[in-house]
Structures are given as structure tokens and as C-alpha cells.
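Submission sheet (multi-component)
Chains listed below:
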Amino acid sequence: MKHLFQKFLAAAVIASASFTGSAAFAEFPDRPITMVVPFSPGTSTDTVSRLIAKVMSENLGQPVVVENRAGAGGSVGTSEVVKSDPDGYMIAMGTVGTLAINKSIFKDLPYDPEADVTPISFVGYTPTLLVVSADSKFQTLEDLVAASKTGDGVTFASTGNGTSTHLAGELLKVLTGGQMIHVPYKSGAVGLAAVMSGEVDFMFNHPVSAKKNVEAGKLRALGVSGAKGSVVAPEVPPINDTYEGFDLIAWWLIHGPANMPDDVTKKLNAAVTAAMNDDEVRQHFARSGITEGDVALADLKGFISAEVKKWGSIADAAKAKAD
Amino acid sequence: MELLSNLALGMETAFSYDALLYCFIGVSIGTFVGALPGIGPMVTISVALPLTFGLDPTVALIMLAGIFYGAQYGGSISSILLNLPGTASTAVTALDGYPMTKNGRAGLALFINAVASFCGSSLAVLLVMGFAPSIADFALGFNSTEYFSVMLLGLIAACTMSNGSTLKALVMVAFGLVLGIVGLDLNSGVPRFTFGFLGLTEGISLISVAMGLFGIAEIVSKMGESKSGMGGPEPKIRHVSFRDMLPRRDELSRLWGPILRGTGIGSVIGSLPGSGPTVAAFMAYAMEKKVSRTPEKFGTGALEGVAAPEAANNASVQAAFIPTLSLGIPGDVVMAILLGAMIMHGIIPGPQFISSQPAMFWGLIVSFWIGNVMLLILNLPLIGLLVKIITVPSRILYPVVIFFICIGSYSVANNVFDVFVTLVFGLVGYVLMRLRYNAAPVLLGFILGPMMEENLRRSLVISRGDLTVFLDRPVSVALLLVCLLLLVMPLRKQLMKYCRSAMSR
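Outcome: structure written.
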């Protein structure tokens, strides 16, 4: 009840402020904020966004409404936000896909993740696990690589052409020089099922769902894509230990259009930071194997540029072009 | 006796006051949105998801799941009464359900719908209870080769669906296949037939195709009829008493076969990730027509044509929970949202879900059954009321329906573009209707085409281009043999006819 009263009071204060003074003096935010999730409901990006948006709403005194605008690998929703007014009322949950990979995969991407974006907050990141079926003859990463150099090579599943799971496989191919054939699936879950049944040899998959199946004796994890290892599966060695230069993570970053006012960006950043310290969000991160973001607001532009470059060079090597 | 103690545990959860209440809310919302053309379970569940944050996770899931299977009941109501499928999976039900309404037997059609749906769901729930893990393993054994063969079987069966010209049906299937090609090619990432529209990169949405071809087209043609006064006989409306909706004894005995066969097909198709209720309903209908002694009655109001697809789509919806709950692999978009809901509530489904969260798993399963009983109780008394929908003047009814179709198409991806796509398909559907082409096979081609292509290419990539891969696996071989049989049988009939006439000459 007390909460509700406070919210009501805050709303009343803001409302009266916007009625009496000119709009320019109104404290941000004086109306609901839209957070566009450029993927379907139920995806990991959607879940993370909804939890954070909920706490942000409490913190900002205005509802942060999550809207799903899926399509074209996240480009549809992202370009909509990037083209909106930079007033902080339209923000997006960006990912390694929308803000890094898409630039080198889509020929006519309607936005430039480096020039058209104001980063607000680095939410978190997770490495992926390289898994094979529990019945597979590959006990170690070396077994797999050795097999890829003989006969027909090996196959790997992905969540589609030009996605992070596809490019991770391509990078492994480039670094080891083996024959690894790409088999795209419509979703990670279906791809994982194909690995379990032995239809496909290996896959890079989200650590939590992979780990559950490792524990149940359906899958075996041979490596972690991030050089720092995985918090969910600390016992699995990073691929980087054997094949240096293999350091890939999936990440989430909240952003708005270019040229957002500094004070608005800072206010939103503070609200996200508060959300990250919320118990429910923390628990969700721990369960989902997401590590809290560790890049400061000032360094985010540089982070995006570095990621664009990194994935760009892998995509070039793989010659994976989509549109 | 483990099953019994598990059931007891499930009942304890599912019969709690909260669980019963939210189960009821879920199935009621489900029936309601299912009946509204265009607004399906997917949109409703994603809207309802944030509202469940404050609830106990089990109760939240019971409610969200209730919306999902409740929508299957509701979807057929508008199919039967107005020839406007509420959800894509009930488009098949309209094939015989609407003729029944025209014959003045709407009450009976709705009764069969409710009962067949109930039987299909309940039997599938029993399957989930007894054999979830083994069915999940069976489904895992389906590789892309088997998927391709099942899809091929479905497609061939589809050509027997339409009444009259097989050639017309073939043309419609081919049209559906072409529509299915639109979008990014999964293997190469190359856009096909998108004409530079960003809204087409993910392909045309199923809701747009279904609601355009069936919903908008039906309304446009009805409006044309009433203006020029050249419409066929109006559906007979009269007071429907409880007796009118009960089947006669001979009719009742004709229903068991279709319901059981529909349930069987629905359960198998449903447990395969990626197929879904629409395919199940189509295959059950095609199968029923094949085994029927009076196939010519299909399309004119055959009871079997309502019972089989309804049992199948409801069974498949229940069976779809098997891979989701026991492997953490969602079969379709709705399941993916439910899975997302579980994750948000802190539960991560996987192979250990059943053993680590027994109260939740069994509670959910028992609630399915409770929910279905509720749906039956909810639906039967409403039949008399629902039938009156036909009497609503079209100047009120049709704008409302178009309004909902537009909202439904928009809300799939929050994209206005999809609304225009729906309208374009409305126009296409109207032309097809005028030319007397049945649009149902389009839907099947549209759904199966991309899946077939995907699985064919995947099989060939994995086999490094070796076509014999389809003959290496027993299930695939068996399915392909059935396909061959379906193709050869009509030929044999023709051949025998020809021989006889040649001999008599």
C-alpha cells in the first residue's frame, strides 16, 4: 500500500509539474518509456528485458513497457528505436546480434551500431558451451578436431545462418583448419535435440539448458566459448586454452538512438544499475548463467566497436552473408 | 504404484483453491480468445505473461497452459458457425462444420466439437502421464529424414482433402508451397521473394495467410452475396434445445472411430517438436476421408469431418507439452513462450524437470485434465447461446470480426505491415472462392513446404548429398512406402476400370 501511495504521489507531482511549467522543465521521465525487445516473447533476451524493465519501472516512477518487435535477426525492432526521437522514451535491448554481428551479415542493415546508437548500460554476458551427445565418440575437444580432419569431417548445428552459434563454429573451423559442416536449425532447442539424438556432431549452446542436459547424461560439454570460462560450468575448460584467439560471448546492452542528452542517459543508466542490484534479477542471472556487465558507461562505445570488428572478421572468414 | 502416488501429489496441487481458480480463468480466456478470429493463444499468453509474475509459478503455468488448450476449443466455434476459423488449426473443422450449420445442425456440430475435443485431450493427457519420457525419446529418434517423410505423407494426403477436382487441390498445395518459400533461406541466409520488404524477411505470418484466405475472404463474399441477392440458402436458425444437439444413436456410434484415430494422429504429431496442431488436424481429416466408406460426404457436413480434426488438434496441443516439459525443447512459438514463462518463474525445464519438480509437473498434468472437464462444462451449456451468433446482423458482426482480424494480425509481431498482408490475402482468398478453389490445401502447403525443404536439405547436408539416406532408416522407409501406396492406389482403380471395360468390349 505504501508503495502504491508513493507511486501515486510521484505521479501527481510529475503531472502537476508538467501542467504548470513548460515541458522542457519537466523531470525525465514524465510518461511511460517503451523498451523494444527485437526478438519474440519467451526468448532469453525477452526474459532478461522484462525482469529489468519491471525494476526500472519502480525506480523511475513511470512504467517501462516491453514491446516485442521481432524480425530479421533483431534489425526490425532495433532500427525502429534507432530512428526514433533521442529523448529516452524509446530504448531497446541490444544484443551481440543486433549491435555487432548484423553489421557484417546484413548487406543493407538500416542502422549503424557504432554511429546510430547511444549506449545506456551493459547488462550482462554469457559464454556458450560446446556440447556433443553423451553417446558421442568424442571425449575431448581434441577428439572432435582430429575427426574433423579425416574423411567427411564433422557437422555442427546452429540457430541459423549468420547467428553467433553459427559464427562460433566457423571460428573453430578457421582456428583448427578442420572440415566442419554447418547445419542450421530454426531454433536452438531443436538444434540441441538434434545433437542429443546424434544427428549432428556438436553445437554451441546456451550454458544453462546445455548444462541441465549434461547433468541428465544426455550431453557432454567439451569446451566454453569465453576465455574466462563459464560460471555455470566452471569444470569445463575454455576453448581458448587449446586454440588461442577463441573468445566469444553473447551479451545484452540497453541502448537508445544516437545523440541522447547526457542527463537522460545517466538517469536511465542509474535505473538499470538499480535493477541489476535487485534480488529477483540477481537470482535470475545466477540461474541463467549470465554474468553482470562489467563495462563502464564511458567505455561502451569502444566495446561495441571492438565487438563489431571481432565478429566482422569471423564473418568475413566464414563468408556468411545474409540480407 | 508410483503413478498413483504421483497422481495424488498432482491432485493435491491442482485441486488447491488457487489452482482451480486460475485454471478456470485460463481456460475461459482461452475459449474466448480462441473464438475471436485472429487473436490466438500466442498473443494472449504473451500479454498475460507479465500479469502472472506475482503468482506462484505452478499456478501461473496452469493458467497460461489453460489459455493454450482452451483456445483450441474456442477456435472451432467460429469455424463451425461462421466459416471463420478462430485459429489456423481449426480451419479444417470448417470444412464440414460450416456445412452442418447450413443444414441447421449447428448445435450438433458444436456438441461434437466439445466432446471430440474433450476425448482427444483427455486421452492425450493419459499418454503424457504414463509415457512422457519414453515418448520424448521416441520424438528424439525422429531425425530430419523422418521429418521429411512425415511431411511428404502429409502433403500427399492433403491432395485428397478437397472435394471435387484433385487438380485444383494440387494447384492450391503448390500455391501454398510457393508462399512458404518467402523469407530468408535458412541455409544460405539469402532472401527469397521479399521484394525488399523488411517485414517479409521472416516469411509471411501464418495468421495473415489463414485470416486473409478464410476470414476476410468469407466476409467479402458474404457481403457480395447479400447485395446482389444471389447467396445460397441462409443457415436455418431455430431454437436449439438440448435434444437437438445430441447425436442420434447411429451417429454416436460413428463418432468413436474418428475420435480415437484423431487422438492417435494428434498425439504422435504433437509430440514431434516443430509440427503443431494444424498439421495434426489436416492429417486426421485426410486419414478419416481415406478410411471412410462414404468419402463423398466429406465437405457436405460429415460428422466424422468435425470429430477427427478436433480430437487431433486438441490431442496434439496436450502432447506438445511432452518435449517441452521432459526435454526443455519447445515445439512451437506458443510452447517457447510457456518455456520462457517457466524460466522467468525460476524453473528451467530439462530432462530432470519431472524428478526435480514433481509437484509442479504432476500438478500441471492433473490440471490439464481438470481444465478439460471445465471446458466441457463451460462449452456444452453455451451451445444454445452460441448458435445465436448466426442471427447477429452482418452489418454488426462483420465489422467486429474484421476489427479483431486486424488486431490479431498486427499483434503477432506488432507490425502494421502484416495487417496489409492479411488484407491482400483476403483479396486472393475471395478470388479463389469465386473460382471454386478450396483454400484449405494452401494452408497445409504453406506450413509443410518450408519444413519439408528445411529437413530435406538438412538430411542431404548431413549425408553429404547422399539421397539413399531416406532409405537407410526404417521409420523413414515405412513412411515413404505409405506415400507410394497413396499415390498408386487411385491409379490401380483407374487401371482396373480400364481393364474391365477393355475386356467387356
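Remark: Chain B is about 75% helix and 0% strand.
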